[in-house]
Amino acid sequence: MALKLPFLANPMDTSILEPIEIADSWAQRFNNALGTVDGDLAQLLINHVAPWWSDRLALTWDIRTFNSVQEIRDLLQYAASCGRLSTVSLKSATLVPTATDNLIYVQATYKFETKEAINIAIVKLVPDARGNWKAWTIVTKLEDLKLHKEDRSRLLMPDVRPDKTVDALVIGGGQSGLQAAAALRTVGLSCLVVEQHERIGDHWRQHYDFLKLHVSKWYAQFAYHHWPTETPFFPTRDNVADFLEDYAKSTHLNVLTSTTVREAKYNSTGYWDVTLRGPNATSRSLWVNHLVLATGINGLRPLIPSIQGKESFHGMSMHSSVYKNGKAWARKRAVVIGCGSSGHDIAHDLHNYGASVTMIQRNPTMVTHEVLNIPMLRKLYNETLPVEVADDLQESTPIPVARLLASIPPKVLNKDVIAVNEGLVKAGFQLKTSDRSRIIFERFGGHYLNSGTSNLIVDGKIRIKSGIPIKSFTPSGLEFEDGTEMPADLIVFATGFDIHSMRNTAIELIGSEEGRSLKKVWGLDDEGNVRGAYRNSGHPNLWYFGGDFQGARYFSKILALQILAAKLGVLNRYQGGK
Fold first, then answer.
1. pTM of full prediction above 0.85
2. Listed GO molecular functions (predicted)?
3. Structural domains of the chain, ranges and CATH numbers in brackets
4. Cα distance between residue 57 and residue 45, in whole Å
5. Closest C-alpha to 445, from 294, 344, 535, 551
6. Cβ of 513: how many Cβ atoms within 10 Å?
7. CA–CA separation, 41 vs 45, rounded Å?
8. β-strands 133-145, 316-319: how paired?
9. What is the pairing mode between strands 283-293 and 165-171?
10. pLDDT at 39
11. Cα three-residue angle 120-403-532, rounded to 5 degrees
12. 49 near 102, Cβ under 8 Å?
């Protein structure tokens, strides 16, 4: 069935709708069908467009998405037979408008408990042609195992430093690794974090001075421990670095800095024999049940395009990963290759220091705008709504459905945004249609949330050269395929990182033989879920973990519950629908 939105033939009078009654009625029908021998739960789903059911461990012990009635029927029969499905009780419901009057839905949150688990379900209910409210999308999520509930008080006391064995070794002490470690602790697992830098947060301190988050501190909160009150709305590079260090201390995580994994060998007992290299070339051995690779989705390996003649260039060239600031480049000619977030930031910084800046755009770029994004995100991420509730709501839409919803044109266009976009095109900047799912989950780059640099381009203060490939370096700058030349004193390659390096890092760590079963990490699989990360990596005792602040926060507990389930011997994944 083609992917479509469940549009109404005519707009509906929403003033007469009672979301609680609608959601409670659906729950009663669901529970009645569940309790009947011949009850068909699939009849509670819409059928004029594809229904969706995404599961985060509750029914499948996996991260899976199904989008046909038959796939969902098979899933529910399996879950019921395994005791993973039970009657639901309504927690909340609200009417959600969209960008068009011909699509509305009631979003309902339910709770359901089985003998072993506590779960939630978030359901989007829409009316069919007869006015019957049916489920369009359902997301089920495991909250806790009853005999092993999350206990956040464990983070208030120092963890026991492992001597010889540990449940999980987290490799990487950034925002992903630390939140994963904290989640592991809350469910009672022992954990050790190793970080190659001298201090937690040093990876951030090494970035360029101009760096700040382009999302609010409310969106970028950490699990279990929030930003200090005085943190600015957009945290700076140093805010993030210092908070990472404070987070590790406040949650009493076991962290070894200036430490790397020299070798990890998997043995027949189901443990990794790990050798750590510490400060001053010291060595230490551990038996580790699970390895969690949290070295960053966007990679450890900078990508620099191969351009001939570099040795002839008399100026300076560098990758964005080593750029610090534009202090030395006042009244000099600077070229920034790449128009993603880092490219825009660095061009802005060089302009602030008085450099003459040109950006080289190799491919169209998706530009979004703070004036639109921040108010939208603030509906969920703010001072009042608990971040865990906000995350559940944010993750309540399967990625393919979110892509469809985002394609609906807004009812009212922002005139300032239109003016900036038109100005960018006039300046020669190539805009790409907004598709957050592809940019974030497939490319992990190629986008910019405008915080001022786009305006500088529109005003002609930063120049753009787009669509013409670079042919070679010259002694004084760059030559392009169209025969034009561009003089430069500084060339910065803001060309990103190898997003496939996480798998390569894992293979280097555990060896090609053990690592041959490892899946590719990141990008979307055939079901529309993130490939490899947070779930089965291809090796039962190795996990990829990473993503942005929100993703790492949300999936940290999902990762911890899977590792806990593996230890308990109950990680039995659903194999149907593949």
1. yes
2. flavin adenine dinucleotide binding; monooxygenase activity
3. 14-148 (3.10.450.50), 152-299+504-519+542-568 (3.50.50.60), 310-493 (3.50.50.60)
4. 21
5. 344
6. 9
7. 8
8. unpaired
9. parallel
10. 72
11. 65
12. no
